[in-house]
Amino acid sequence: LAKVAARVMAGKTLKELEFTQEIIPSYYAVKESVFPFNKFPAVDPILGPEMKSTGEVMGLGDSFDEAFAKAELAAGEVLPREGRVFFSVRDEDKPCAATVASWFVNLGFELLATKGTASYLQGQGIPVARINKIEEGRPHVLDIIKNHDIQLIINTTDGRATIAASAELRRLALRVKVPMATTLAGAEAYARAIAFGDLGEVRCLQLLEAESRQGDASLLTPG
Per-residue pLDDT tens for 85-130? Predict the structure, then answer.
């Protein structure tokens, strides 16, 4: 693709290069940014538009699930295979959260949630145990995380007040190395990656590239 782009910049047209249809790779690729949050333990690790990563990693696989799982592993995230998933989401995310929560139940995980989220999930017939927010008294969610009784956190926020209120939760998750999703899309990706299971054998990039080129060679050959 880089060679084709260089020729286009030099004045060639895609038609002249016989590049007349989209090339879809035979594999999926997921890029994951790496942030230096562990070097700044007092900083809230929630992402914002002003943040810059210190590096990037990529996972490749035959499916999105496999590629995402590999990208997370490359970024230093070890996805749990069992244990407890904690949910605390904003109201507008609760319908989607119920779907994702049911996936985790089917994968054998136990669910914990704060009052509002737990009430909604229970109303959808999803088994979940309620735990306290920090301001509701002990034992609360931070105590449970410190005891290593939560293996994955799903936490979405809305507005400055809720972001500030859950900042300590995110900082603690970072310190004790508990994976956290701050969007429902991220939570879904976690569930799919965990469901994928064993990542199998290591495959070299050269082999993947060669396999991909076999079907696309004619489209990449200059006229």
Answer: 999 999 999 999 999 999 999 999 999 999 999 999 999 999 999 9
Dig out the tokens for 104 from the structure. Answer: 């985790």
> How many CB atoms neighbour CB 132 within 10 A?
16
Two tokens, residue 53: 């990563």
Domains within the chain, CATH numbers bracketed: 28-196 (3.40.50.1380)
For the CA atoms of 111, 80, 72, 126, the dihedral, rounded to the nearest 10 degrees, stands at -20
Give the Cα-Cα-Cα angle 72, 75, 76 (nearest 5 degrees). 90
Question: Which candidate, 103, 107, 110, places its Cα nearest to that of 83?
Answer: 110
Structure tokens at 80: 């749990």
Residues 8-28: tens digit of each pLDDT: 999 999 889 888 887 777 788
| Nearest of 81, 56, 59 to residue 72 by alpha carbon | 59
Mind listing the pLDDT tens digit for each residue in 152-186? 999 998 766 566 657 888 888 888 889 999 899 99
**Token match 């002249």: residue?**
16
Query: Which tokens belong to 81?
Result: 């295979």
